[in-house]
Amino acid sequence: MSKFPKLLMATAIATVITTPVLAEKYGLGRTATQDEIAAWDRDVFPDGSNLPEGSGSVEVGEEVFVDNCAVCHGDFAEGVGNWPKLSGGADTLADEDPLKTVGSYWPYLSTTFDYVRRSMPFGAAQTLSDDDVYGIVAYILYSNDLVDDDFVLSKETFTSVKMPNSDGFVIDDRAATEYSNFTNRCMSDCKPAAVSITKTVVFPGDPNAGAEPLETQAAAPAPAPAVAEVAEVVPAAVTFDEELATKGAKVFKKCKACHKVGDKAKNGTGPILNGIWGRAAATTEGFKYSKAMLAAGDGGLVWTEDTLSGYLANPRKYLKGNKMSFSGLKKERDIAAVLEFLKSNSQ
Amino acid sequence: MSDSSNTNGPSRRGFLQGAAAAGVAVGAAGAAKAEGDPLITEVQEWASGLGDGVDASPYGMPIEFEGDVVRRNVEWLTADTISSINFTPIHALDGTITPQGCAFERHHSGAISLKKEDYRLMINGLVDTPLVFSYADLERFPRVSRTFFLECAANTGMEWAGAQLNGSQYTHGMIHNMEYTGVSLRTLLEEAGLDAAGDLAGKWLYVEGADASSNGRSIPMEKALDDCMIAFKANGEALRMEHGYPVRLVVPGWEGNMWVKWLRRMEVMDAPVESREETSKYTDTLENGTSRKWTWVMDAKSVVTSPSPQMPIKHGKGPLVITGLAWSGRGAITAVDVSLDGGVTWAEARLAEPGKAMALTRFYLDIDWDGSEMFLQSRAMDDTGYVQPTKAQLRDVRGVNSIYHNNCIQTWHVDANGEANNVEVS
Q1: Which of A80, A162, A205, B272 is the most buried (most CB within 10 A)?
Q2: Which residue of A197, A260, A261 to mutate against B (max B Cβ within 10 Å)?
Q3: What pLDDT was estimated at residue B332?
Q4: What ipTM does this complex have?
Q5: Which domain holds residue A241?
Q6: B8 touches chain A (CB under 8 A)
Q7: In whole angstroms, what is the distance from residue B290 CA to residue A85 CA?
């Protein structure tokens, strides 16, 4: 190899290395419009800056909360099952088992507003009006005994609320409290010999097996139907369009947070939907239905193409007082696809 | 996967029984039985017939015999898998690079499917020109490629109060290590221009994702301009959906929650947002009820991945490879020590390669196991002089309610049969 190409390469490398240091602009991208920035830049700060116009009372907030949030967080924001508790826990942070809620732990009210507005309800984020968000936040404050029942939250009243744990945080102090202590690299006689076990493992096998006994016990009392009986009631197979069902599986993602299908499905926030096609409403075993849904089932509501289409288009309007907090599927083709998917799980 | 033959090492008898049980041998007709392992003395099917053609699997998956090397979730830890976490099978991996397909996932509103064509990245706030980039724009900036670990702040979080879960996958599996390719944040921010921000000291960069959780976090500008990058490739190929396809943020050495997936916006600010993920979560409550915030950096940590509860010793006494992983968010691993007696005496392990800053380091200690019980521990040192603390040392400072940032020394009790269990020791 001659010297010439080597020299060329050296020059090339030098150029590449020096270029970025000059912070030269590449002319890539385009200027964002004011509307685009407004659509995405919705951060609300602790001092209330960037809050939108609007307001919401505890009273209105309670209704909105019960409709949209209570299914996971409970009517009084006390939490359902493993879902987050939003109220209670005052003065428990130094306890053995602290309860961290908006009231007991969250240092800034802006965090609650910002989070509800951008991420809630779970599965239908950014569908609430700003007034509804103000109302929900007002109700969460009320459920934590932080405001009275006639309180109205708005831009103007926002900073009047004092969060109990606002002074409960210190900035990372590991450099001062830990790092100088964690430097001893002892190699021998580091502690008395004859080490013994002080704690053994709580879940010795597959950790998922640890939760099983409880589940099995809960399900055990259900009487198993006699084999002959089962053989007689096997319904004719439901026919379905496989392609449409596959599309429906994608739409079903909106439902998955609460409803499960398939072999391993368990009741969650909502009932299992296996075999829903042609079944009477409110008959999934082991699920606690709303009074409204139980009444509808008793009254003869059966899940068919017509009834499911109506229900999924607007659940609250279709069946007043039922507890499914889902605003509904807007597109008819989405409804058709989900119905096909549910059919495919009713084989 | 298990070889259940015997614990005293291979014998001729074992070979013969093994082959008979497997029943795969294609014996030469009428030939006298040769002495030795039939897998050697007899022509095997795979040595005679044909294997799969090319393209049998256009994108290859691990062979069926490795089917249990997968991510695993612990169902009862969270209310739902959509806002949940699973664990990398670190017990069964070696080397340092985590294959994307088994690298742990953590979502707050589920993994979304976002096309490159629908992807937009906005930079706004205190910049000279607020900009919007398409995915194609990002590929035209000068590129960087670097390897970093990502550890969830809650890794080992179940273990504060006691020994809870039995396996390094569950105790330490909220971690992965990949080679990322993308663009440095400095390059992108300078494209928008930082003169409008004035003095950059004390300024912040708020970052958020395109999913419903948006998972917003505030990062000090100093860190953003130091070594942060956006990534569109990991281990040479496009990011997986569950890791933020098409673009995620990389924040080397800092808690995984800050590595925002499906990154859609970065805003230069003069104060932090104090979002949900930096106040109500990812803050560390101490014994007196006060909590630390902004505990971003992941301190030095290590774990023996094998032997461990999911990787018992099956070969009996004799040569044994003890191996594990070490890492530090504050720099490079300089040494790892291993103790067989629960921390009374320590021996320096061999590093597979010199430690790289903010990336996983593999260590080995090769011993002649005498078959007696062991209390296996590992201890990492990084280039700041930090020595990984014991659980007792951490509890002395923090109590047991911190949830996050548990980097304590882990103990596995290995009994004479080679079975291993998660324990705490005196």
Answers
A1: B272
A2: A197
A3: 98
A4: 0.90
A5: 236-344
A6: no
A7: 20
* B142 close to A (CB below 8 A): yes
- Residue ranges of chain B with per-residue pLDDT less than 50: 1-28
Put simply, whether B164 touches A (Cβ < 8 Å) is yes
CA neighbor of B337 nearest in space, from B374, B380, B303, B366: B380
Could you say which of A160, A175, A205 is where a domain stops?
A: A160
Q: Which domains does chain B have, with CATH numbers?
A: 12-47 (no CATH), 75-426 (3.90.420.10)
Q: What is the pLDDT of residues B37-60, one digit of tens each?
A: 999 999 999 999 999 999 999 999
pLDDT tens column, A201-242: 999 988 887 444 333 333 333 333 333 333 333 344 567 788
Option in A111, A193, A199 nearest B162 (CB): A199
Taking CB atoms and an 8 Å limit, are A173 and B287 in contact across chains? no
Q: CB A189 to CB B343 under 8 A?
A: no
- pTM of the prediction? 0.82
Hey, are the CB atoms on A169 and B293 less than 8 Å from each other?
Answer: yes
- For chain B, positions 342-361, list CB contacts with chain A under 8 A: 342-346
Within a domain: A198: no
B:292-321 residues touching chain A, CB 8 A cutoff: 292-297, 299, 309
Query: Which of A103, A137, A160 corresponds to the end of one domain?
Result: A160
